[in-house]
Design brief:
Elements (H helix, E strand, L loop, with lengths): L20 E5 L7 H9 L6 H9 L1 H12 L9 H5 L2 H4 L8 E6 L7 H7 L3 E7 L2 H9 L8 E5 L16 E7 L7 H14 E12 L4 H4 L6 E3 L2 E3 L5 E3 L3 H10 L3 E14 L4 E13 L8
The structure holds S-adenosylmethionine.
S-adenosylmethionine binds next to loops.
Length: about 290
């Protein structure tokens, strides 16, 4: 079964050519009895030993993912400006140069469309996979006047080593927090908060609770509540609105918007229609926005 390369999931799935797919607004998603039984029946968790190994090898597993897939897995995320009107609204005046940080940038599918679309953006981009960062630097659109890519584990390495404290207007977290162990998500949020300006914005999009991808995990893939491991060792958390709001609030942010986005992926060739659930949210760091 094909998923949109746009939001495709590494590991368990094969991504089909994008021309076979169409993403359209979805219907309200609730689980069928069969789906609930499947999730309820899959209660056995992966052993503590394997869980520790996965945590220790998280960076290696993502780096191997990029070794296998290079830049071919995720499709450029051209929806970012459309969906995040805020990216434009983040400016206090029209000619303001927006400083952006794409945290967990992968190979740059999110930042490069933004840089193409808006000439007045400077983008920091970081990822803990050295290969992913190298792919970003090799992109023909990469230039040091407009971008700065660096390697960083958001849960361990202080972002201030590469980004001045309180200097960023907007931080994007696109399908990244789901890859981090729930116990360490707060550390990542505290880290990004240090480089965000007071009054600055975090734009978030990630897997929502009950997304179709959650149902596709086979028995033996469950790591904890709403947390699963793919065949390639990368992990994915599925967010409820409540969990996310609490997490950001505990890290000192204020919630602005926090909504499920329902989509349907249509695979025309196979005649299949797959319901998708994403969570799209906006948070701010309290304080007065400084004009520079
Ligand atoms: C699903 S990809 C999304 C990439 C990109 N944001 C995009 O929209 O295409 C998740 C990315 O998060 C990165 N990642 C996972 N855990 C991380 C961590 N602790 N620190 C930094 N990057 C991390 C992975 O290497 C991977 O590139």
């Amino acid at each position: 079964m094909a998923l949109p390369k746009d939001e495709s999931v590494p590991g368990n799935f094969t991504a089909a050519p994008p021309e076979e797919e169409e993403v359209r607004p979805g219907q309200n998603k609730s689980f069928t009895r069969e789906e609930s039984n499947k999730l309820g029946g899959d209660r056995a968790l992966v052993s503590d030993f394997k869980q520790m190994k996965l945590e220790k090898e998280a960076q290696k597993n993502w780096d191997l993912f990029y070794k296998r897939n290079a830049t071919n897995f995720f499709k450029d995320r051209h929806w970012t400006t459309r969906e995040f009107e805020e990216l434009r609204a983040c400016r206090q005046f029209e000619s303001q140069r927006l400083v952006l940080l794409e945290a967990g940038c992968g190979v740059g599918n999110c930042i490069f469309p933004l840089l193409e679309d808006d000439l007045n953006i400077f983008a920091y981009a970081c990822d803990f996979s050295p290969r992913a960062v190298e792919f970003v630097k090799q992109n023909p659109l990469y230039c040091s006047e407009r971008c700065c890519a660096f390697q960083c584990d958001l849960t361990k390495d202080d972002l201030r080593e590469n980004v001045p404290e309180g200097s960023v207007d907007v931080i994007t977290l696109i399908f990244v927090l789901s890859a981090i162990h729930p116990d360490k998500m707060k550390l990542a949020l505290e880290n990004i908060s240090r480089v965000l300006k007071p009054g600055g914005t975090v734009l978030f999009r990630d897997y929502g609770l009950h997304d179709h991808a959650m149902l596709r995990f086979k028995a033996g893939s469950k790591l904890g509540e709403n947390f699963y491991v793919r065949q390639d060792g990368t992990r994915s958390y599925f967010f409820s609105k409540e969990f996310l709001a609490e997490l950001f609030e505990e890290a000192g942010f204020q919630s602005v918007t926090n909504n499920y986005v329902l989509r349907e992926t249509v695979n025309k060739k196979e005649g299949l229609c797959v319901p998708r659930v994403f969570l799209q949210s906006k948070f701010t760091k309290p304080g007065q926005l400084q004009t520079s």
